[in-house]
Amino acid sequence: MTSPPSLSRKEAESQVRSWGFSHVFTWTDGGGAHYAPHKHSSLTTHLILSGSLTIAYPGSEDKKEKTTHGPGERLDVDAGQVHEVWIGKEGCTYVIGE
């Protein structure tokens, strides 16, 4: 499921709330940031506003490939799913829903 990349921050946050997420915020990472393997206790969604991120699922039998996501893309991570993230060289701004 994708959204137009031209959404404002307010519009994007409203859209993520409309998907049923109650805790919604916008986050920006600088280029080259890295999140070591980790997991969350609930489903999370990420709506990319600018830049890109690459995600991998260490130890997953179903999701063996790294995937890169850019503006307008929605990325969901299931509760308890171990994942690792690399931010593109241009950085990344995204709306998170928890």
TrEMBL record:
Domain of life according to the entry: Eukaryota
PANTHER family hit by this protein: CUPIN TYPE-1 DOMAIN-CONTAINING PROTEIN, CUPIN_2 DOMAIN-CONTAINING PROTEIN
Protein name as it appears in the record: Cupin 2 conserved barrel domain-containing protein
Source species of the chain: Neurospora tetrasperma (strain FGSC 2508 / ATCC MYA-4615 / P0657)
